[in-house]
Amino acid sequence: MLGLKLATDPRWVNIVESNIEEILTDHAWCEQKAASNAISLITQNSEKEELVTELMIIAQEEIEHFKMVHDLIKERGLTFGRERKDSYVNELFKFMKKDGSRNDALCERLLFSAMIEARSCERFKVLSENIKDPELAQFYRDLMISEAGHYTTFLAFAKKYADNVDVDKRWKEWIEYETSIITNYGKNETIHG
């Protein structure tokens, strides 16, 4: 469904389980950044009523996920650490085209957002199926479903607002690029790491 070419090795979950505090802190910050991304897209495209309406829902969901992860950290007596740099997202950002019309730029940003959501969804699936902690397995299953919805929303809007972009072709380019960089990740106890 997600179209990703390289699946996360389930052994990544062994790394995650060695430091639950780290994965939860990193995950919380990923949710905060996802909410901020949706708000930024709203701010930059306020004239697009349907986009604004849908992205408000996504922003609310992402901030609720941030709260849920933060609550989980507190309930487990763990420490919520400082924001982490996300090298994976930074590498994806470099691939984003910065030229073209305003709508072309929006389309590119939506594809960038869809890619992050797709990989997050895939990682949540791997966690839900392989982590030994039943509470976290269910938690990540529930979030996986939500992330899949965000992914499809971003892709649908990219298609809707594309003027001069062949979205299907560009999405394939995003998939190829993501495949080339994801091999560097899956070695740390972070969502994308």
From TrEMBL:
Q: Which InterPro entries match?
A: Ferritin-like (IPR012347), Ferritin-like_SF (IPR009078), tRNA-Hydrxlase_MiaE (IPR010386)
Determine the domain of life of the protein's source.
Bacteria
UniProt protein name:
tRNA-(Ms[2]io[6]A)-hydroxylase
- Native species: Flavobacterium zubiriense
